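Hi V.,

Quick status before I head out on leave. The structure for the redesign project is tokenized and pasted below; the design run finished overnight.
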């Protein structure tokens, strides 16, 4: 597989069809959920969490990268994280190459390639913050304890990311910690979540 293969040229109808297919891919398909989750909903939230992490002034590249970061799942589906890790261990680099080929097939430019180191970290943090928020709502807001391990997993991923960045990314990591604290307050307190969010 050639990871550097150029994007296939597609017309607008094909791009819209690909995005429509990607947006409806079900997430957490191997677990019972009280609320449906899709790549479209997830990407929408990741985009806005990137906006929050960038203090309301994200680059266009970051927003576009957030909007399309899971587009390869239109073909691959949403693989659980343990499967991705096993694939990476069994054949290092192959899963990344496969995702890149699927992204190129969408006809959408690789906006992730234009990100700075800090923006790349922001996208990863936003992705995990959204996962923590969704699983917190399922577990603590709706009583679905089958996602408790997922919730703790996202928190562990966040801690790893925040501890691995260079000193220059400390303000970004501090904002991510603040957002995680707000998510905890939304779902781990006795207050009514809907009132906290909408009241």
């Amino acid at each position: 597989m050639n990871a550097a293969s150029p994007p296939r040229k597609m017309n607008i109808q094909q791009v819209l069809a690909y995005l429509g297919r990607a947006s409806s891919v079900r997430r957490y398909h191997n677990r019972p959920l009280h609320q449906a989750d899709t790549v479209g909903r997830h990407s929408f939230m990741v985009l806005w969490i990137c906006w929050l992490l960038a203090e309301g002034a994200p680059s266009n590249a970051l927003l576009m990268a957030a909007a399309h970061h899971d587009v390869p799942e239109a073909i691959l589906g949403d693989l659980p994280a343990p499967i991705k890790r096993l694939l990476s261990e069994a054949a290092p680099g192959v899963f990344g190459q496969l995702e890149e080929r699927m992204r190129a097939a969408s006809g959408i430019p690789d906006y992730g390639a234009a990100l700075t180191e800090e923006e790349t970290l922001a996208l990863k943090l936003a992705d995990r913050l959204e996962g923590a928020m969704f699983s917190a709502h399922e577990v603590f807001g709706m009583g679905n304890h089958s996602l408790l391990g997922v919730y703790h997993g996202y928190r562990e991923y966040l801690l790893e990311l925040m501890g691995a960045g260079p000193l220059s990314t400390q303000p970004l990591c501090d904002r991510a910690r603040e957002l995680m604290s707000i998510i905890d307050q939304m779902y781990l307190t006795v207050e009514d979540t809907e009132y906290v969010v909408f009241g």
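Above is the designed sequence. Residues 132 and 153 are 8 Å apart (CA to CA).

G. will cover questions while I'm gone.

Best,
W.
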